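Predict structure. Input: Transcriptional activator RfaH, 158 residues.
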Amino acid sequence: MYTTSRAEKKVAQRLREKGLEVYLPMVEELRQWSDRKKKVQKALFNGYLFVKTSKVNLWEALQVPGAVKFVHFAGEHATVRQEEIDTIQRILETGVAVETDNSEIEKGEIVKILGGPLEGMEGECVNKGNKDYFIIRVPGIHQNVMVNIPRKYLEVIG
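Output follows.
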């Protein structure tokens, strides 16, 4: 679901109050002002949150203040598989630094992570700039989650 700018937390809370299942992936970011620094929680995907709903409840979900519309491509509502949600959750639970990217990234090598908190995960490795990134694609919303992982911790499997 698309939300108004920086309203993801409020929309998620309101949807939960209506009894809907919501997932809002959050990351911690260090913000600096002229007089202080503070860690703040922000949405991993700006303006997006994930709602598990049926066609019957679509209209009800959109009545929540701050909800804009459901993501759709080519006239079809976007669907994000539970496997993709689980992968995002696992990555965020480890606390590793992540980036998001919505650009078209060329296909990379299929790899397995050999060590660290993401050990055993399989996915794609792409080179961007002069860094290697383990990438999880979220095709339902045309976004990518990227983790910078040194090549020595990756084994090419496909």
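The longest helix spans residues 82-94.
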